[in-house]
Every structure is written in structure tokens, then in C-alpha cells.
Amino acid sequence: MFSGIIEGMATVMAIEKDQENVNFTFRSPLGSQLKPAESLAHNGVCLTIVTVKGDTYTTTAMRETLQKTNLGDLHIGDEVNVERPLAVSARLDGHIVQGHVDETAVCTNVEDAEGSYIYTFEYPLNHEMARKGYFCVDKGSVTVNGVSLTVCNPTDNTFQVNIIPFTYEHTNFHAIKPGTRVNIEFDILGKLVSRLHHFETD
User: Fold this and answer.
1) Which pTM was predicted?
2) In terms of DSSP H, where are the helices of the chain?
3) How far is residue 201's CA from residue 135's CA, in Å, rounded to a whole number?
4) Is 143 helix (H, G, I), strand (E, B) or coil?
5) Residue 151 has pLDDT above 60, yes or no
6) Would you tell me which CATH number, out of the four given (2.40.30.20, 3.40.980.10, 3.60.20.10, 1.10.10.10), belongs to the domain 8-83?
7) Tens-digit pLDDT profile for residues 79-115
8) Chosen CATH of 103-201 out of 3.40.640.10, 3.30.499.10, 2.40.30.20, 3.30.750.24
9) In the 8-state DSSP scheme, what is residue 116?
């Protein structure tokens, strides 16, 4: 489990296809603190550390992960947001994040708000998925590329988030522009409530 509070960024150093899987090698200040078999969220995707060498490490993404997230869009030199799993004794500064990306969204607009930035994202409209809790609510939580954020001005398939300078500089939000595809994870509480409602109405 994660909190959506990004600890740093990792740079893609190598990409190697292995049948239907892809092995990504990253360099990160966190690299020397990692061990094989540990989990680490990359742009909100929980991946297992396979090998570690100094400040570099390798993870493997299977076909389903590549299809449902933006990891398949990565190129050598790209940066991803990284976060280690939440310690049981830690404060929950963000919100409950599973590291299981629900789908991708596309940035449609970036507005300079005179000191901060307003990003607009759009995801596919799917009423069946919405009935299962895959949607955004005003002032609720959403995870974008692993970053815990507060939702503003949601519609059926769009939402906005406000990004302060610190987040802009210390995550890969500074690289997001109109047309950029991002990973999103909807709030688990909404999914649980929707699932419970399903059984109550049967």
C-alpha cells in the first residue's frame, strides 16, 4: 500500500523486451536503499525489484501492465515518480493508494494559475465502470502518475487538479503537457461503496 506522496524520481536507463514482458532499468537516489523482491511504485504502478546494482535497479512489467498503464510509453531518459510502500507506523499524508492503476487519462490542458498550475485530464467514458466506482468526485482523491491529488471540477469523464510549484518541480508533472498520457487510480473508498451498494440493491 502507498500514500501517493512521491519520494523522488527515477530515470529510465535501459529497456529490454523479454518475450511479452519488458525489463526496465532505472537509476534513482533510492536505488541503493532497495533490495530484490521489494515493491516500488513507478508512476503509481507497483512493481517488484528484480535486481539492484548501486543506484540502479531493474523491474519487470508484464503485458497487462504495459497495456493498462503508460509504462509502455517510456523511453530511455524519461523520468518516473517513485514511492516506497507505506510503513505501518507512518502518517498517511496523502490517501490510501494501492499501486494498482485503473486506466490511463490524457492531459487536455495546462493552465498557468499565476503561481500554480491547473491540469485537466480526460479518460474514456464508461458508464458500467462508473457504476463500479471508477469515477472522480469533487474534493475527493485521485492518483495521477502516483501523486495523491484533490479532484476539482469533475465531469463524467474529466477532472482537474491544482499543482503547486513544489509538486511541479519534484515530480514529473513538469513534463506533462497536452497529449501526455498518465496513469490514474481512482479512490478505493468509492469502489468499495459502489460494490456494497451493488449487493444492497440485488
Assistant:
1) 0.91
2) 63-68, 127-131, 165-170, 188-201
3) 20
4) strand
5) yes
6) 2.40.30.20
7) 999 999 987 777 777 788 889 999 999 999 999 999 9
8) 2.40.30.20
9) S
